[in-house]
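In this supplementary section we document a worked example of the pipeline. Step one takes a protein sequence of length 207 as its only input; no multiple sequence alignment statistics are reported here. Step two produces a three-dimensional model, which step three serialises into structure tokens for compact storage. The input and output of this example are shown verbatim.
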Amino acid sequence: MRDIKSEINVLAARLGGCVSVAVRDIKNAFDFSYNDTERVWSASVIKVPVLVEACKRLADGSATRDMEFELQAEGRAPGSGLLRYMHPGTKITYEDLMLLMITVSDNHATNMLINYLTPKAITQTMKGFGYAGTEVQREIYDYEGMRRGEYNWIAAGEIADLCKRIYCRQAAGGEFDDLALQIMSRQCSKTLLRLYLPDEVCVANKP
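The serialised model returned by step three reads:
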């Protein structure tokens, strides 16, 4: 364990900035933490808490998989995804927004979900899990929010624990965690973690 931390120290020194690593073994055979309580800006990993909150709404019956959202002409989020190129008036189901958000990291799908779920509710769910470092304050690429000092935050240890909760059916609950896991296993990005694992290994992740 000490050797792993030493190697990470060397790599972190070369990279600069803040480096966090968290491993949570499903069978509790091996956990590893390196700076994993440090609160950092989230980038696309914040989409995992959004996914969990979206699944919780299905679990409590306040949302349905086939409920529809209409794509508007204005407010398209830049960056990754497909929705920003689609025609105004296109209708997308709730479940398809979840799928697009995770599998192709669609920023506009993410914003449509954040707008529906609300940043406050997503954050409250994370606080309910005991996560002090995970917080949604704004939509993706919300420049006005950034100017107000609003950012989305995560801690590596909390996200690792959240992924473990999903696998153990303890995040959204039962079949709805299964849905989250299924969506994450359809990830289109084959880089990073997926790149170095054998093809027969099933990976459910969000780069």
